[in-house]
Amino acid sequence: MKNKNSKSSPGLKIAVIAAGVVDAILLILLIVVLVLPEAGGGSVKADVPKDFSANADTYYDADYESSYSSDVSVNYAGGSLTEGTPSGSDTADADGGKYSGFVFPDSDTVLLTDERISETVKDAETCRRAINEIYARHGYQFTQQGNIDFFNQYDWYRDMTKESDMEKVSAAFSSTEKANSEKLQQYEQANGWN
User: CA–CA separation, 16 vs 22, rounded Å?
Assistant: First the structure.
């Protein structure tokens, strides 16, 4: 004997099929909502941690341009320098430091000897550059275009306040710089280069 309840009514079958179709449609919609924004390349805005929120508006103001280009080449001790890179010169900082390309990169901290000067300085231009390096470190505003172009290749020089009064600049020299400047000027005079 069969149970009456074991029969399925046609309405129940239609309801089960309709529920299955609705489930399938909802699943498709869920996949579309989750997958399409990523595939569409939509942007995502990151939250700024509380530690950074006080300065967050300044992060985008930074100028990341760190190079300076010039169409001018500067003759230097028989070689040439373009954008601060020494060519044919052994007088630059070995580590490519702040004063790379200088005749005496350490003339602000080390007393120059007569021997070192005579080994390094072979002409009037190199001697004058060695003297000008000391002045440049203190922001002297050069008037000759060659000096302007040479020292403007250095960010530290370009960005500093300039002074056109040579006496004011030399008053700021350390005792080492003062001694080196005087020694180089004497060498320049002794060779008749001034």
Answer: 10
Give the model confidence (pLDDT) of 156-170 as tens digits. 999 999 999 999 999
CA 8 – CA 15 distance, rounded (Å): 11
Q: What is the DSSP code string of 111-157?
A: PPPHHHHHHH--SHHHHHHHHHHHHHTTTB---SHHHHHHHTTSHHH
Task: Find, among 109, 124, 81, the residue nearest to 180 by Cα.
Answer: 109
Q: Confirm whether pTM is higher than 0.85.
A: no
The secondary structure of 43-89, three-state, reads: CCCCCCCHHHHCCHHHHHHCCCCCCCCCCCCEEECCEEEECCECCCC
Q: Cα–Cα distances in Å, from 101 out to 53, 67, 91, 168?
A: 42, 16, 7, 26
Main-chain phi, psi angles of 155, to 5 degrees: -55, -45
- pLDDT band at residue 31 using 50, 70 and 90 as cut-offs: confident
Identify which of 129, 134, 124 has the alpha carbon closest to the alpha carbon of residue 157: 134
In whole angstroms, how far apart are CA 79 and each of 15, 73, 110, 135, 162? 91, 10, 25, 22, 28
Of 94, 91, 77, 76, the residue nearest 151 (C-alpha):
76
The amino acid that residue 148 corresponds to is I
pLDDT of res. 56:
57
Residue 104 scores a pLDDT above 80: yes
